């Protein structure tokens, strides 16, 4: 992909001499941006642009051009791509819209274009995009007139599904005195997908921070795996989240909507920072351009008590610890204070320190004796104090180099001063405490994610909860089931293959067999009607509980037969007898095969906690024990598992073990589309599957 | 207060000729800002500043100066304030720190200063502040050097507890090309409080929008009442929210922390917009400078499909409705589209409309036939397209004047372009969709609050749920109770005074009386030990339930007596017999007298919903039926009241009526400090108080 972003030669297709011809505007941008390589132009008529001839055919082009940019009507694209292929072009950016985002005809055209590209081993960007920006290499394939100073070079690389969002991101970065390394508008992702660009940016030496704007996710699992192993911060702005916007997305870039709550959970699980606005990108990029924040200890210095209070509030909100000011620092610091009226704490109020030269030694001393993971300095100054502020920034710059700590500067002054400081001193300045705090929190979260992941990676390779051969046994059961939805006892057998406890049970054809089974498993028991024609047993009264003796067992079987006949179902039914589980907390464990992320697992407390309060935890499977434990603690109702109002605590370890096993089951058996263990009873000791439902691919 | 912000003459106290003398810097600021009135200077030594003499005593000053600004050591303040008083000064700004925010000595000094001011009927700003800004009148009492162009004049007036936060707010407004009408740093609020400034800003013809930054709230109820009746938007940035920051606040401006969740609820109830960052102020001020958004219908026009999807997501998040594009608009609109590839919807994607002149007629047409409450236009353009953008802005400006609708422009370009548009055309520009959407939502929320409030105000005056004379009867019971915590049956009597149903009960001295009462009220019943020494009956096993007959009643009384003796309590106890309430939803209704807001009321479902999930609704009392209904629907577990899993729905109307009555009770009887009805059982029909606890002032 390097020759896409650093093409040694470049072809623009569709150029004419008309001033409003869009490919002409692209070519003019390239000239204006001083693209250093060879530039070729092709159009329907011969002509000239600047000093570049416009050719009217591919014939005279040299072989092996690195990059072609095409913006002509959709119907003409296949032939032009074919022309490129014949000339051994390596990459083609198709900017034209009118493909998969419109109608079936467009989709068919898109398939045709992809086939041609594959035939020639060409790779495609787009279609329906504005291509790429690489200001260091003079690349700007946008079809509106742009000036080089609109796209300052920097260390952030970004991709956006929409061309205009690409530009908006660049403008937002620039407004914050940040530049762009590379940008690509990925459009319909006919060939290259977001994960391809991500892989490239991850290894690109000129990229420090990566941003992705996505409307749909093409290969969720690959995205997650790349993110988890990334050595650079990756932020995602995922739009197209609401039901209502699914329609607009389809007509824009044919994106697929996935459940946004799952997206949130998966991103968090794999260390992808999700941002919610363009500005957050700029803030995070500022924060991440500082050294990483490895822990929670924050030392705050402020020229203003009012901002100190705001900082304390926010430190609390973002989970930072404000370690106490040690006595030795206090003693030493007091020499700088003009008045002795404010006690020394963290945030340290420097309101009465009028000699700004003392700030640097004070902060140095605090770093030495407080050992913080990060420092924040809040400074409000008028227009006239620019030089004092600049001197401070230079001082903090050298402290940062010395201690390799993030020193977040939160300066409040005229915008002119802020811009000048950032531009002249190349140090990020936050204009309010909330911004700086959020950025530091993002940095800390990323550090901590990677620390945790490294620790787990060592464990994960050797661990497996479920027994050897489980997958094989479960697969046999799945294969032998007659329907797409397994019968309850078949689902039980799948659970048992993974050694997930099911209370004693047996399947009876008639009352006699039921009696024998009942004797074996003991009363009280539950009895369930098993017949392929009935998926939701309880809907027809097919479940009877608390059967305490033989007499009530026989009565129950007669009742169930009557109810089955009443439904007009004339099948032969079996009766599932199952020992009742008493005392324990009802929970639900669910799983499904998600189109975007593959197998995912859900956990929540049973009944109203899931149905009314929607209080569930989601993860991409498989999970390890730490992740399973996090699922049980992140739900709001988690404390109920510890026992409230005198109840015994539930066996959280057994629950965690079960979650891991089910996640392994879902991963081992991709043919399972849905799984519901509802309820699973978590007892004082161990768990019991009371009901299970498994659906598989037909 | 007008002579504070528009003083016809002004005195600065503490001035010397030394360049770093702070009062001198204040005086120089006034000169630099072209303060138009007479300026007097006083210092310890005679001298000159510019053309102004520095006097060394109050003697030669004229009588009746409007405003004096003092910044000298704290200990000198009483004498200087006395000096001002003798000369009939009307307002004094004390900028010096070292008063109530430090120690007892400071507090005593503050009381002394206040007494002097009151003696002369002078009003005070501060202490511990930077005073006021009024750029239209050349007032800048800040003690750092400032330039007039740092404080552009505008229509937003603000107050902040901290001087530096005052400046930060002004800088944030200016960075968004907004100016300030008046600003005041309110400091320790020794005399003038936030509600005084608020009252002034509310009637000030040069103020359109008001912002308050508060660390503590001096008179919560007055603040709320002013907000509810305000004809201008009032935004509050309330800091000092975390437990940890309470300490810092005390040492800064002696602010008191109140429960932040209650602050949220009260602000919402009375229509105060709470902002969470300085930037939000600027965004809201931009939004509120447009005509108000009266409803939920939003029409979105976008040059970019990608931003359209983002807008759809956000419209959904903020509860906007995106009405469909009517057929007639579609037909007419299509003439402007270059390609026919995008279907017309809302957001309307103008990506293929290259003639920007058609935007205005298109939007006009949509306003005519869609009747939206607000319009958003998203436009991404390069540096070079400034003129096109400016033309659009002018077009939208006239549309806005014609239809008096908010037209939020969300433009993405270079910062230079955005600043130039805002400055040249005086039209607010949002740089991202999230900003514009949030600002429109704030505008809508304010409009809808006032609409709702006006509708309620008409009702409220005549309505009262609780019976005539209730307060008198309840007050008698409170007065006759021996302890600060009422005995359970006394609390029942208070409830009954307000006709809040309590199940049949009676108080027995011994087993014989208990038997007689039991016969009257019927079994099953509960029995509770009543003795002033035991506040929490259940802690010593003082409650026994489900007593079904005389025999178990006698046994229960013996058991209770034994338990009481086991506690070493030698008092004579009574026995409260109470008919058991079966079947119904347990809820909790609580109340307390809050230091900031007075009587407040709490509602939640009983047990784990409150204890574990913390799922409660709060309001300032009294509330009306609509507010009570909102309390029952805003909790997460609200749906449980409708009955889930086959349960009968609870009587929400009776619950609402009870909430209103209890809110009236709390309001009528300010001597009640705490009240807990826990549980209140909400039955299929009606409610029943099962246990009640009331504490009163000693």
Characteristics:
homodimer; about 700 residues; alpha/beta; Rossmann fold; 5 domains; 7-stranded mixed sheet; 29 strands; about 40% helix; flat
Structure report:
The structure is a homodimer of 698-residue chains. The model of chain A is unreliable at 249-258 (pLDDT under 50). With 698 residues, chain A is an alpha/beta fold. In chain A, strand 8 (131-134) and strand 9 (139-140) form a beta hairpin. Chain A is built from 23 helices and 29 strands. Helices cover 39% and strands 21% of the residues of chain A. Chain A is flat and about 95 Å long. Chain A has a 7-stranded mixed sheet, with helices on both faces. In chain A, strands 9-8-11-10-12-13-14 form a 7-stranded mixed sheet, sandwiched between helices. In chain A, strands 24, 25, 26, 27, 28 and 29 form a 6-stranded antiparallel sheet that branches. The first copy, chain A, folds into 5 domains: 1-135, Rossmann fold (3-Layer(aba) Sandwich); 152-289, Rossmann fold (3-Layer(aba) Sandwich); 290-457, Succinyl-CoA synthetase domains (Rossmann fold, 3-Layer(aba) Sandwich), CATH 3.40.50; 504-580, ATP-grasp fold, A domain (Dna Ligase, domain 1); 585-696, 2-Layer Sandwich (D-amino Acid Aminotransferase, Chain A, domain 1), CATH 3.30.470.20. Chains A and B meet through helix 5, helix 8 and helix 11 of A and helix 5, helix 8 and helix 11 of B.
């Amino acid at each position: 992909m390097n020759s896409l972003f650093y093409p040694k030669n470049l072809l623009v297709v569709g150029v004419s001499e008309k001033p409003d011809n869009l490919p002409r505007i692209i070519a003019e941008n390239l000239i204006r941006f001083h693209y250093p390589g060879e530039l070729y132009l092709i159009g329907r008529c011969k002509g000239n642009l600047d000093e570049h001839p416009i050719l009217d055919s591919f014939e005279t082009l040299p072989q092996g051009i690195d990059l072609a940019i095409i913006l002509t009507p959709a119907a003409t694209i296949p032939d032009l791509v074919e022309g490129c292929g014949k000339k051994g072009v390596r990459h083609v950016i198709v900017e034209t819209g009118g493909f998969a985002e419109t109608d079936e005809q467009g989709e068919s055209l898109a398939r045709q274009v992809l086939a041609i590209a594959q035939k020639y081993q060409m790779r495609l960007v787009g279609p329906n995009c504005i291509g790429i920006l690489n200001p260091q290499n003079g690349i700007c394939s946008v079809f509106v007139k742009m000036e080089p100073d609109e796209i300052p070079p920097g260390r952030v690389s970004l991709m956006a599904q929409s061309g205009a969002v690409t530009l908006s991101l660049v403008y937002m970065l620039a407004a914050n005195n940040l530049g762009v390394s590379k940008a690509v508008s990925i459009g319909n992702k006919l060939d290259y997908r977001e994960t391809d660009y991500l892989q490239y940016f991850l290894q690109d030496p000129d990229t420090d921070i990566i941003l992705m704007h996505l409307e749909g996710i093409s290969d969720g699992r690959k995205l997650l795996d790349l993110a988890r192993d990334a050595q650079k911060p990756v932020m995602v702005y995922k739009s197209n989240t609401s039901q209502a916007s699914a329609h607009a997305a389809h007509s824009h870039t044919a994106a697929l909507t996935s459940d946004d709550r799952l997206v949130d959970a998966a991103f968090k699980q794999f260390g992808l920072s999700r941002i919610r606005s363009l500005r957050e990108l700029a803030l995070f990029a500022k924060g991440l351009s500082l050294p990483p924040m490895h822990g929670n200890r924050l030392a705050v210095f402020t020229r203003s008590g009012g901002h100190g209070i705001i900082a304390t509030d926010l430190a609390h909100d973002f989970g930072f610890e404000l370690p106490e000011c040690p006595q030795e620092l206090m003693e030493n610091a007091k020499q700088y204070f003009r008045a002795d009226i404010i006690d020394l704490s963290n945030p340290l109020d420097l309101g009465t320190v009028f000699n700004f030269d003392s700030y640097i030694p004070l902060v140095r001393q605090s770093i030495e004796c407080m050992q913080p993971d990060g420092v924040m300095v809040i400074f409000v100054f008028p227009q006239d104090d620019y030089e004092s502020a600049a001197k401070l920034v230079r001082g903090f710059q050298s402290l940062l180099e010395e201690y390799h700590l993030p020193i977040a500067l939160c300066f409040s002054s005229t915008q002119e001063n802020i811009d000048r400081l950032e531009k002249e001193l190349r140090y990020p300045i936050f204009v309010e405490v909330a911004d700086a705090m959020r950025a530091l929190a993002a940095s800390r979260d990323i550090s901590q994610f990677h620390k945790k992941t490294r620790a787990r990676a060592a464990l994960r390779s050797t661990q497996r909860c479920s027994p050897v051969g489980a997958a094989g046994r479960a697969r046999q059961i799945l294969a032998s089931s007659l329907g797409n939805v397994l019968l309850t006892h078949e689902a039980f057998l799948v659970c048992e293959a993974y050694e997930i406890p099911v209370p004693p049970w047996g399947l009876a054809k008639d009352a006699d067999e039921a009696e024998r089974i009942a004797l074996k498993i003991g009363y009280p028991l539950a009895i369930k009607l098993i017949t392929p024609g009935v998926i939701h047993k309880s809907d027809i009264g097919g479940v009877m509980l608390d059967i305490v003796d033989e007499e009530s067992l026989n009565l129950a079987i007669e009742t169930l037969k009557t109810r089955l006949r009443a439904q007009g179902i004339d099948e032969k039914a079996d009766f599932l007898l199952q020992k009742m589980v008493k005392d324990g907390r009802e929970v639900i464990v669910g799983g499904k095969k998600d189109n975007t992320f593959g197998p995912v697992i859900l956990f929540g407390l049973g009944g109203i906690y899931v149905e009314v309060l929607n209080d569930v935890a989601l993860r991409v499977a498989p999970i390890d024990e730490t992740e399973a434990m996090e699922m049980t603690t992140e739900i709001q109702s988690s404390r109920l598992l510890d026992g409230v109002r005198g109840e015994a605590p539930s066996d959280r370890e057994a629950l965690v073990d079960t979650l891991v096993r089910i996640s392994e089951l879902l991963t081992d058996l991709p043919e399972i589309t849905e799984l519901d263990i509802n309820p699973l009873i978590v007892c004082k000791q161990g768990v019991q599957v009371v009901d299970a439902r498994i659906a598989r691919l037909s």
